[in-house]
Each structure stands twice: as structure tokens, then as C-alpha cells.
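FAQ: What does a multi-protein file look like?

Like this. Sequence, then C-alpha cells, then the next protein.
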Amino acid sequence: MSKKAERRWTVMVVPHGSGTSRAVELSQTVVKVLAGIGSVVALAFLVLGAAAISRGVNITRSRALENENRLLAEEVQRMRERLVSLTDTMNQFSQREQELRLLAGLTPTDASVQRAGIGGPAGAWSERDSLSALGSHGQAALAARVDIDALSRRADILVRSLNEAYGSLAKQRERLAATPSIMPTRGWISSAFAAMRVHPILHLARPHEGIDVTAKMGAEIEAPAAGIVTDVKWEEGYGNMLTLDHGGGVVTRYAHCSTILVARGKRVKRGDVIAKVGSTGLSTGPHLHYEVWVNGHAIDPIKFVMPDAIVD
């Protein structure tokens, strides 16, 4: 039995110019081989093209990442420079804080408390190991994070300390504002504070629990400190009398007034005009009888008259 004849193809090669056309006869086997070679070559070109494209993309991405890393590194450097400046500013605030605490009558912040803002960040945070593994840029970012945490802790300590100092200063200011410190009227002392003296009218020995300031009739009487008017009345011997409560157990009284210019419950401050000098009650002439009481005990008012230079 004869073999089946192999299929064959004839390819005509026709030149563009002058010349003889040629006929090339190809067997089926040759056609298959050529087709296989063409497929392999095409596949090779596809693979090489894809690899070239992928390499180009990777190069582009790498350059973009390098640019991003450069920008981030520059930003970290700028941030660290700012942190140095902030640290200097924080040191200046710390110095002012110590001075303010002294003015407020508080002890300076303990050195160990100040050092609470120095060192590594408190607690653990997940980015620490990741940043450490990123080389020099990661180390720089880690150092910046540590510095920021330290500044944050120092700022918290400063805020608490400053709030305490301001609170103490406010209390001192209120206390000083309510402490008698000026002579209520202009004149001269005609009778001093005494445990016992002879009354100029009654001629009886009795305590003189204040001072007498002789002044012209109608001279202004000023509040020697902030306080509240707690009593306005006529009292036998004292005539028109006014009482101020300054808080903290300190009370002042003003007797023999010709006129009282404030009503009960009125809040006054140092220097407010509250009455006028008179001669009401048992009096030999116009004068102010001025008393200072502390926790129920009469105190010499002269002890509460400060030099003008340090009144306010």
C-alpha cells in the first residue's frame, strides 16, 4: 500500500522591478517548521518587550521613590532644625517659669521633675522597629519622634507648673488688694493707738482701739483696701460710723464721719471715697477715728500704713 503524497505549496516570488519571477515549492513539513520558528520568535519578542516595559516601569517607580525619599529626608532635616529652635525656646520658658514660681512664693520645680521631659518616648509604639529598619532616613525620623515626645512632656510639666504659679499669684494679689495699706485721709495723728488713755471728753481711762487723724471738715475718707461695706450706722460716742470687711478676718471702722457715701453691701477698692471727715458723736473737733481689727482683735492701724512707693 503506497504512502499518501505529502501536501506541498508553491510560493511565487515576483520582483518589483525588472527580473524573472521565481516559484519556490515548500513541503508541509517545511511550512510547519517555519511557522514554529515564527511563533517562537514572536513569543521571544513579546517576552522581551514585556520585560523592557516592566524594567522601564520599575526604573520610573524607583526614581519616583528616590525623589520621595529625598523630599522626606529634607523635610525631616527641616523638622529637626525647628525642633532645635523649639528646644531653645522651651529652655527660656523653663527659666521664666522658675522665676515666676519664686515670685508666687512657690519652690522652684525639682530638677528630677524637669528631667521628666528628657529621654526616649514613654511606652511602646509600633513604628519604632519599622523606622529603625529604614536606614539613615528612618533613624532621623525616629530621633525626631523622640525629640517631639520629650518636648511634649516638658510642655505638659511647664503648663501645670505655670497654672500653679498663676493661681498662687492671683491669691496673693487678692490678699494684698484686701490688706489695708494707706492712710484713709490726709491729716495728722492727734491721738495714737493705746491700750489705755484718758478720754478727752469723758475724762475716763479707757482703751483707744484706733488712731485719731485730725483733718479739715469734709475731707475725703478713702478705703485703705478692697472690701465690702458691712455696716453703716449711728453709734453712741462714735457718731456716723462705717465698717468695711476686707476678708481673711480683717475689718476696718471709720467713726465721727460727717457724711457716709456708700451703702451696706457695696464693694469698694483701695482709694475709693467712702465718707467725709466730720465731728459727729463725742468729738472735740473734725477728725477721723480709724480702727483695724484682725480676727476680733484691735491692731494699731499704723502697722497697716505702707510707704507710698510700695502701696500698689
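And here is the next protein:
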Amino acid sequence: MSGWSRKDLLDLQTLSQQEIDLILETAKSFKEVSTREVKKVPALRGKTVVSLFIENSTRTRASFELAAKRLSADIINISAGGSSISKGETVLDTARNIEAMNVDAIIVRHSSAGVPNQLAQNLKASIINAGDGCREHPTQALLDMFTIKEKLGKIEGLRVAIIGDILHSRVARSNIWGLTKLGARVTVCGPSTLMPVGIEKMGVQTTSDLGHVIKESDVLMVLRIQLERQRDNFLPSLREYAKQFGINKEKLNQAKKNVLIMHPGPTNRGLELSADVADGEYSVILDQVTNGVAIRMAVLYLLLASA
């Protein structure tokens, strides 16, 4: 546990390389737990965790719940529709009421950037950011980095391309912070309308040339096109996007032999990835899901085991 002193996990921007490495190493030891016949250790017995999701989720929510249960913590799930938030109560007031029941950690997902930080400043319980607006999704990036290291043996020196809707992607931002700190060379690729102004200041290269990216990269991290945002006319058409930035088997003929195809999910098949690529030999999408449980076990353990 040496090297970890934080109460909360809010982002990767403020984590050091050593802290990221510690989470990845801790997750390695916890991954084995999920392969046992009895998938449980008593590490967090007596701890209580609340999952407060004010935005929809399947993978992240289920992954955190499994992680807590496999560490023997008690977990309670609260959604916006089933909470007093739907009656007009603020998120902070809801969280304060939850904390008053002597809980140890609150996992929060919210459509507004900065909500986890606000809670962390006002509560004694540990706050874990499960995605806030377009800002960050730290545990997704951590599980992505864990998967890359597991499959390729390292991160330093690798060329990683993040492809798609960079503008709206908290996954992209967290991965950029994390991967660059661990020594990867990151390129973001997508339409100019979906590229944030000044993204180069985060230490990445930008391009709209997918063919070049496919040839040069060790990892192709493909993002979901957020269909709910396309009414704002960021793209001329989804067909045009699929033609220019979607990845299919033909385009992958130019890729390195051991290239990894990653996606945070959910996947719009035929748009970002063709079905044969999503299910193909280069895809590690299901490995990402598996590794998400180990990463979230590691985060919960580091935050709560000595608290």
C-alpha cells in the first residue's frame, strides 16, 4: 500500500506515474481472484460502498458492483430515477444524506463535469469518479492501460491512436493523461469538427489520416460515436463517417501484425468497427471488460483498505 495516500480517485490528470503504476500492479494481483471457484476475498469486509449513477451505464456500474462484492464490501445502488434527485434535491445534498448513513465510499457518474470533485471537497467519504461529463473517466483509462500492458508487455514507447469523437470523449482525455505519463506516443484521429481546440497541449499529435494511423500504431483505441450528439451537425452523415473513419478488415490489412483493437463500449457495429473486426483476432474488447473488474477492485482496495 506504500505510495498511495489519496482519499479519492477523481481523474488521471493529477495522478503521478507512480500512482498509476501502483493501481495497475495492484489490479494484477486481484485479477486472479475472478478466476477462482469462490470469487471473493475478505479485504474490504465491513466497508460500505454506494454507487450513485445519475447517468446511464451498464459495464461500469456492473463492474464496480462486482468489484465491491468480490472484496466482500457491501454495495448499494442508487440511480437518478430512484432517488430524491428526481424530486429536485441537489446531488450534493443527496450525497451528504448518503454519507450520514456512515458509508465509506461513493462511486459517482454524472453528465456534468466537476460533480465528483465538488463531492470530494465536501464529504469525508472517498469519492470515485465513474465518468463526469466530457471531462474524465479514470477507471476506463486504467483498465485500457492494464489491457495494453498485459497484451504487449509494456506501454512506454508504444504508438497509441485514439480514433473518433475526441471532442465529447472523457475516455479519450483520461487515456491521454495516463498513456503519456507512462511513456506512450499518442495520436488522436478524427474529423476536424470532433477535435477539441488546443488538444495538442495535452502532448498528442493530431491527424485526420486514418490510413497512416493504422500503419503506424501498436494500439487502435476506437471511440463510440455519440449518436445522441449528432443532431448538432458535427458530421455530414454517419455513412460518410463510417467510410472515412470506420475500421474494417480491408483497412486493417495495412496494420501491424500484433495490433490491438480496443473500444470502451457500447459499440455501434458497422459505424466505428465492422462486426468482423469487433469480434476478430485483434480485438481485446472483452478483455477490457474482464480487466475492468480487477482495476476497480484495485481502486476500491487502495482507497478503503487502510481507511
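Q: Is there any per-entry metadata?
A: Some entries carry free-text notes. For the entry above: The radius of gyration is 19 Å.
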